[in-house]
Specification:
heterodimer, A: 111 residues, mainly beta, six-stranded mixed beta sheet, five-stranded antiparallel beta sheet, B: 115 residues, four-stranded antiparallel beta sheet, 11 strands
Chain lengths: 111, 115
């Protein structure tokens, strides 16, 4: 079983709608969770990090973490064409040097 | 600050040729990483260096070697390139090894095509 799995895309949403991205992880001792955005041909850039159960909001982005169910999600509210990108979920164990990445979900926002 | 820089940006190799991908960071980070990214497979860790003087294998180390030249620089070498190594290679760095709450910062990537 892959360590980090993301819902398969591509995900197409109309402009102004909410895009919902899901990620599940297999290692129960995982402690840190990150969402990266990657535009085509570019490198990943961090958009959200979350470490505790519950919601964390940053502008139009909300990350949700449920450690008991081993999932983390990302909501993009009021989606804009500039949000069209691949979103990567990454997970790290406590005191671990390494990140485990999901395969990514490609989001297309239709104008 | 330039952040994480990688050279070259693009390279074409013939099967069996060797090359070294260079990575440097100017953020005084201790940990550095090499990933490859293939379509539909996300980022896979090749090698990492938790701190200057140490290197460790990641998920897909076969066919690669690394050198942590100093705190700033971490190079990836392909001794005998194979078509299966056609990929986009990203270097990343992180302030401290064991701070799980710190993210990694990525370079712009090197696109490698092996014919």
């Amino acid at each position: 079983q892959k360590e980090v799995e993301q819902n398969s895309g591509p995900l197409s949403v109309p402009e102004g709608a909410i895009a919902s991205l899901n990620c599940t992880y297999s290692d129960r001792v995982s402690q840190s969770f990150f969402w990266y955005r990657q535009y085509s041909g570019k490198s990943p850039e961090l958009i959200m990090s979350i470490y505790s159960n519950g919601d964390k909001e940053d502008g139009r982005f909300t990350a949700q973490l449920n450690k008991a169910s081993q999932y983390v999600s990302l909501l993009i509210r009021d989606s804009q064409p500039s949000d069209s990108a691949t979103y990567l979920c990454a997970v790290s164990q406590f005191n671990d040097y390494k990140l485990s990445f999901g395969a990514g979900t490609t989001v297309t926002v239709r104008a | 600050n330039a952040g994480v820089t990688q050279t070259p940006k693009f390279q074409v190799l013939k099967t069996g040729q060797s090359m070294t991908l260079q990575c440097a960071q100017d953020m005084n980070h201790n940990s550095m990483y090499w990933y490859r990214q293939d379509p539909g497979m996300g980022l896979r860790l090749i090698y990492y260096s938790a701190s200057e003087g140490t290197t460790d294998k990641g998920e897909v180390p076969n066919g690669y070697n690394v050198s942590r030249l100093n705190k700033r620089e971490f190079s990836l070498r392909l001794e005998s390139a194979a078509p299966s190594q056609t990929s986009v290679y990203f270097c990343a760095s992180k302030p401290f090894p064991a701070g799980a709450q710190e993210t990694q910062y990525f370079g712009p990537g090197t696109r490698l095509l092996v014919l």
